[in-house]
Design brief:
It is globular and about 35 Å long. It contains three helices and four strands; from the N terminus they run βαββαβα. Helices cover 34% and strands 26% of the residues. The model has no long low-confidence stretch (mean pLDDT 93). The protein has a four-stranded antiparallel β-sheet.
Length: 87
């Protein structure tokens, strides 16, 4: 299992458009990926799950993956979050 924390840089957080980008990137990998904020954890491949967290800008999230290319998945998702989702 691989996990990394990242600060959500864009002001509005993971609203519909960034959450969709996040979910699409997560679906590129075949193994399990979760998104965690405080004590809540959701499947990163579920748009409703990601939206349910209500992540706003300035919040630190944890990206967790388990599988053959877990490190690549976590690194790709951290990079996406760090990019600010091109907003």
């Amino acid at each position: 299992m691989c996990a990394k924390e990242v600060l959500v840089q864009n002001q509005v957080g993971l609203h519909a458009r960034p959450a969709a980008f996040y979910m699409q990137k997560a679906k590129e990998f075949k193994h399990s990926i979760w998104l965690e904020e405080e004590e809540r954890r959701v499947n990163a491949k579920s748009l409703l799950g990601v939206l349910r967290l209500g992540i706003v800008g300035g919040v630190t999230i944890r990206i967790i993956a388990d599988g053959a290319d877990e490190e690549q998945a976590v690194d790709a998702l951290v990079e996406l979050v760090n990019s600010g989702f091109a907003e």
